[in-house]
Backbone:
């Protein structure tokens, strides 16, 4: 037996370390992994392409997109809605035709049953008080016919149920944000103007710090909460918003009066630190191993 307690194999208790080791080898149990900084997107990257935006726009909920990517997504949603609406209208016309055919068939069956009933009527006098053997026969035949009707052969091909295709649902008439799922229109998108650190440069994508606050010139990143001013599209830090802009609610660039809805907080990714405010734990549930 080894000296270390973790490698002890003669213990009477199934320890946490042994259970964890067996879980990793067998594949049972849930697995928790904390994601690093490389596993999340930067604050200035598009939520669809995950690349730095060439022409950034932001939604009222704070999700940043490349204009080309979000317009393509909204156009695809429009095409899907048109296709689903066409299938729904086709199915509705088919259902209406089936209902019409069923109503015509019911009317026809009513007429046929009425004609059969009319043919049964006779003008000859019938002996209604002679009900002996003939009545029994007729009742017997009726009971047997009823029994035959009540017990059909369910495996006969004409009596087997048919599997109908899935019913098409009426599609939603609104285009939605791919991230939040809320209704989104093209006119809701706000153009964003980032202030580049050190001027324009072609190798901007290789920089670790690319943009700065338009007012305080502080470096922007995933660790720095920032917001977009709706009237100008400039990006500022939330510290600037709380300490400078919200005192008078005036735009520092144009002097216009601002509202709370004019300040859009950018949804940012994580940083790898526990205090970043973003959940970076990935969990995968697996089958439980009972002891």
Residues:
């Amino acid at each position: 037996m080894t000296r270390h307690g973790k490698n002890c194999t003669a213990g009477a208790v199934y320890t946490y370390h042994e259970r964890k080791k067996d879980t990793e080898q067998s594949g049972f149990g849930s697995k928790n992994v904390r994601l690093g900084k490389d596993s999340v997107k930067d604050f200035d990257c598009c939520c669809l392409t995950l690349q730095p935006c060439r022409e950034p726009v932001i939604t009222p909920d704070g999700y940043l997109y490349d204009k080309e990517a979000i317009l393509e997504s909204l156009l695809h949603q429009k095409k899907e809605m048109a296709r689903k609406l066409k299938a729904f209208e086709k199915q509705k016309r088919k259902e209406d035709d089936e209902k019409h055919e069923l109503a015509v068939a019911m009317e026809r069956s009513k007429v046929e049953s009425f004609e059969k009933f009319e043919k049964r009527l006779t003008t000859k006098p019938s002996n209604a008080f002679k009900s002996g053997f003939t009545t029994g026969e007729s009742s017997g035949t009726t009971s047997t016919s009823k029994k035959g009707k009540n017990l059909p052969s369910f495996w006969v091909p004409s009596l087997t149920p048919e599997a109908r295709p899935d019913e098409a649902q009426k599609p939603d008439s609104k285009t939605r944000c791919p991230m939040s799922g809320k209704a989104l229109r093209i006119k809701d998108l706000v153009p964003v103007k980032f202030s580049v650190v050190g001027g324009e440069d072609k190798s901007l994508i290789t920089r670790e710090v690319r943009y700065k606050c338009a007012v305080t010139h502080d470096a922007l990143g995933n660790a720095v909460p920032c917001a977009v001013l709706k009237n100008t599209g400039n990006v500022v830090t939330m510290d600037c918003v709380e300490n400078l802009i919200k005192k008078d609610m005036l735009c520092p660039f144009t002097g216009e009066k601002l509202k709370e809805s004019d300040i859009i907080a950018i949804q940012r990714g994580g940083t790898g630190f526990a205090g970043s405010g973003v959940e970076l734990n990935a969990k995968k549930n697996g089958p439980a191993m009972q002891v």
About this structure: Residues 109 and 115 are 10 Å apart (CA to CA).
